[in-house]
Amino acid sequence: MDVLNLSDLHFSATADADTQFSLLAEDLRGDLDCFKLDGIILGGDIANFCLPKEYDVATAFTKRLMEEFKVPPEAVLIVPGNHDVDWAVTKAGFKKIARKDAGSLPYPEHICDLGKGKALQICDPTQYKARFDQFRAYYEAVTGKPYSSEYDLQCTFLRFEREKLIFVGLNSAWPLDHLRPGIPSIRARAINRMLQEISNIPDSVSYRKVAVWHHPIHSPADDRIRDATFVDRLAKFQFRVGIHGHVHRQGAEWLRYDSERGMELIATGTFGAPTKELPTGTPWEYNLLRIEDNAITVESRYRDGIEATWKPYGIWREGPTTTSPRYTVPLRKLPEAPAQMYSRSQLLDFIKSEGMDPSEYRLAVEANIFNADGRLLLQKRGPKARDERGKYEGVGGEVEMHDLHGCLRKEISEEIGASVVVNIDTLFEVRPVVFEEEGRGPQDWIVVSYLCRLVSGKPRAVDKNRTSEVRWFTIEEAHCLPEAELSRSTFRFLQLYKKKYGSRPYFERAV
User: Fold this and answer.
1) DSSP 3-state of 388
2) Which of 432, 435, 463, 484 could be cross-linked to 387 through a Cys-Cys bond (beta carbons 3.0 to 4.6 Å apart)?
């Protein structure tokens, strides 16, 4: 599924939204081959000065995007940023009081200490909350749903039931006003409500979860979220990815709390900030999130001129000298697997330990076979293969017996020859994968992936209908194969293998 991720749009009343839309649509349909979006995420700062005319431009742009790419209102997630707070409203809502009187007043969060014994109090909390009214009107015009004026209820959801995926939108701008523009936070009571709502979803533990808010946690600027304990709560609740904006440049980092928990943080960059607000040398940016199986591939795009076209943004380092315009982050982290896995019951216990229901998955084994030269064997799926026809992958198949190693040896014999003997050296990974099977649609699988070495025999395509070709590749050659020529499982294997072992054989020690 494809989800468009824009942030920091900063629409002005005179913005050329028509050109912005045309350039974006051309890029999606062209380089990215995306003609339909499954969802849209807007990460805040929709307008520039929180003026009604700016939101009129934003509404027209967003609705056109939804119409052209067939996105229903319920598949749009929007969070506010600091530019979506109406300073004019807050300026009219304060009165001066003596600091000594502030402690006895209700709404202590609405007291602004001026020092020297003076303070300002918000005299009308209801009027004060109206600083989000322009954003709320835009939100309702786009999604068809109201955005609550109550801070505890400012938490929104996108739920994709078929894909078992939840996006949650949080308001990090809720405490901001013209006197305190640099104190963003995530309200604990809003987190409480959100986690409770997710807990009420049947089988909620099996859902992949992503949170979206506007302000960064790590930033050299002062206007960052200083209390990041909310991320620890999200990580404990199995949120694996957080998406934010505000910093006007793309980025990614792993935020770890202890040896077991952590989240990937994705900074979106700015889609339309005024040139003077761009960091030096930073272009306009956006992300397309390609979600498949249990990972998000982030397609990074940029343009460096007012009417310039969008291009791939090769900023993610893959090695000392190579970069890529995309990177992958996991949506689900299975617990640390044992060095080996021998039996079906061992596999089922492992799946259950993650809180997943094994009955919802079909089980498969996969052999990634290396020869003495460190080359990897890949077979091409034949014209009558069950799925992934014409694509390269390792050797394997469905688990049909209790002994996983016995099942794997049976598949090796049937696919590449009875004379082929391998050592099953180590368990590489247990990974969820979705395969498209003809006549049955998408199928959820758990693949047990092993690293193996060829002992004897010459691999060949036993059944040309199932396996049309068998070839040896260096890791570099395999890694350079286009994604479209690899099975989903093998594409994932090659990505993780390269990160763990580089281009060397796994059985060689690093120098």
Assistant:
1) coil
2) 435
Q: Under DSSP, is residue 315 helix (H, G, I), strand (E, B) or coil?
A: coil
What pLDDT is attached to residue 106? 47
Q: What angle do CA 16, 18, 23 make, to 5 degrees?
A: 100
Query: How confident is the model at residue 335, as a pLDDT?
Result: 54
Distances (CA, A) of 164 to 143, 159, 444: 21, 8, 11
* Identity of residue 91: K
Number of other CB atoms surrounding residue 68 within 10 Å: 16
Task: Give the count of alpha carbons within 13 A of 342, CB side only.
Answer: 0
Residue in 155, 151, 191, 150 with CA at minimum distance from that of residue 170:
155
Question: In this predicted model, what pLDDT tens digit does every residue of 389-404 receive, in sequence order?
Answer: 899 999 999 999 899 9
Query: Which pLDDT score is estimated for 511?
Result: 35
What the block records as the tokens of 281 is 């040398």
Reduce the DSSP state of residue 119 to 3 states and report it.
strand
Instruction: For CA atoms 413, 416, 420, 426, give the dihedral sign.
Output: negative
Residue 440: partners with Cβ closer than 8 Å, 6 or more residues away: none
Low-confidence ranges of the chain (pLDDT < 70): 93-124, 253-262, 280-281, 317-322, 332-338, 355, 441, 509-511
Separation of alpha carbons 128 and 159, rounded Å = 31
Radius of gyration of the chain (CA): 26
- Kindly state the tokens that stand for 298: 């982030």
Tokens linked to 475: 């890791």
* Element of type H or E holding 316: strand 316-317
Tokens standing for residue 10: 């900063």
Can you tell me the distance from the alpha carbon of 364 to that of 30, in angstroms, rounded to the nearest whole number?
Answer: 36
Per-residue pLDDT at 153: 93
Ordered DSSP codes for 143-159: HSS---SSGGG-EEEEE
Query: Exposed/middle/buried for 175, CB within 10 Å: 0-12, 13-18, 19+?
Result: middle
pLDDT attached to residue 120: 60
How high is the pLDDT of residue 115? 58
CA distance 45 to 181: 13
Residue 286's CB: how many other CB atoms inside 10 A? Answer: 26
If one counts every other C-beta atom within 10 angstroms of the C-beta of residue 192, the result is 13
The 3-state DSSP class for residue 415 equals helix
